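Forwarding the complex inputs:
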Amino acid sequence: MHVSTDIWIWIAAALTLCIYSFLYKDNPFYKFAEHLLVGVSAGYFFVIYFWNLIVPNLLTPVKNGFVTLFTGGGLTGDLAALVPGILGLIILTRLIPKIAWMSRWAIGFYFGAFQGIAITGYMQAFILAQIYGTFVTAANPVFSLTLFGNFFGDPGWARFVLATSGPLMIVGVICTLTYFFFSTEHKGVVGGVARVGIVFLMIGFGASFGYTVMARVSLLIGRLTFLLRDWLGIIS
Amino acid sequence: MKRLSLAFATLLLWGAAACAAAEEAAPAVTARDAPNDAGGAVNVAWEPAAAEKEAAFTGYEVQRRASGEKEFVKVDRTAPGELAFRDEEAEDGVEYEYRVQALAAGEKAVVLGTASAKASGQWFNTARTNALIGVIFVTAVIVFFIYRAKGGAELFVRKIAGLEAVDEAIGRATEMGKPILYVTGLGDASDIATIAAMTILAKVARKTAEYETPLIVPCYDPIVMIVEKEMVKQAYTEAGKPDAFDEDSVFFVTQSQFGYVAAVDGIMLREKPATNFYMGAFYAESLILAETGAETGAIQIAGTDRVTQLPFFITACDYTLMGEELYAATAYLGRDPLFLGSLKGQDWAKGVIMAFLILGTILLIFSTDLGLRFAKLFETAG
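Prediction (whole assembly, two chains):
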């Protein structure tokens, strides 16, 4: 057992235990760690955003733009950074109640621009790519009579899975889409198909649940390793 | 007839000769402006060198010179069999000449050929034409249904269990005299789930204003906080209780994921809200939040389009809106013609997608080639 002599390891270990004390119940140690984390992170992100966003995207180009302008180089694209800069300042008008309404301009621009940009991305990633992926996997069709022929010609588990996984996926996609059809009551045939869709969804969620829990367990192992190895030196 | 045959034979011979000439004239090196880009790139390709199969062959060297320059400068070196290079350091509008040399150990480099090209940007990305058609189609259908809804048409929307429970959850908090916690997750304003969550917040705030139930909205994103504050304020005004709106009820916490979670968990334990809403974009924090909420005994309604987080909400919450149910919530709760029309339009778009899936499957059954060609229509690139 080699207990760490590094003060920062002790602080990190103490804060880890403070957060874990929440498992028992809310207590002053948890409150302390919580407020410290919130305060430090808020300040930390402010500094990160200032140096990583405001300085390279606003202050530097604007400075370069004005230097070029006043040294006879004329107007350059750098000064275009003033537009988002001004919109950003307009958001701060919320601090002055009389002109707080002006902040809506910037917010409206921000939302409109983001949604406009997002539409094509969503269409590509969530609709077209999904339809394509339902038919084709790794440049091969997911559904093919040849695959069934291969299975019946030489039956085997691998060939069975290969032949049926594609049709199963297509059926799953259609049934799941039917569940998300809001214009019809889920009764009769539609109701039956939607129920099959729910079964597909739940199987998918179950698999996802197990997969994610495994990832979370690895996070716990990481923290325990820190406590037992880096701090207490019980394990090597 | 004989004449006709002669003419046909002549035509064939001429065609064959033309093809042979074209084959002979095919350049060993080609350079073209990279298509569908914002400019600044040239694609260079070349035919394999005759010496490529020899053991001494080491690869190709691509050289470049701009118009007006005398010397070629090396820009890339490729391995044997690698017959293309993308020059991403080309300046738009400048004519570049590319020279490709075949290299062999102990031998002099052999020039395969030269080719010239200028880089330029394109306004229209042809590889995304299918996305454009899709957007136009969906938009047209949505606009059509919005006009129908505004015209007074009765548009049916099926029952969504999670949303039926919203009134009950708000009523419960009112009866217990406890606050309602509304968490919109970690998404920013560009996230569709966050926007859906904000519109649901407006409906919830309207009810809490009517019942005078305290509302707590801790925010992760400062822009989202500003918008949510505006929406809640507006909801209180619409409910005729502007004075009941508390400026501090919608507040910024931090942009650190787990800092935010720690704070929201703390709020749950200290304020003991009777109802927790988790609507929007969630990540690893979903289970921590939902578990803590369940511990406090609150009724919990969640909604997200994050597939990996839905299982956690389903296990730990009383009701969960899955994926598109979250988007449908606004139309369902508000019955606003704009939202109802857009929901109907989306349903029709889904119907068309299902029809495409069935058609594609039928094509794949009868002809794999035809099915693959059909699937290609949906292939996305760049």
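The first strand of chain A starts at residue 136 and ends at 137.
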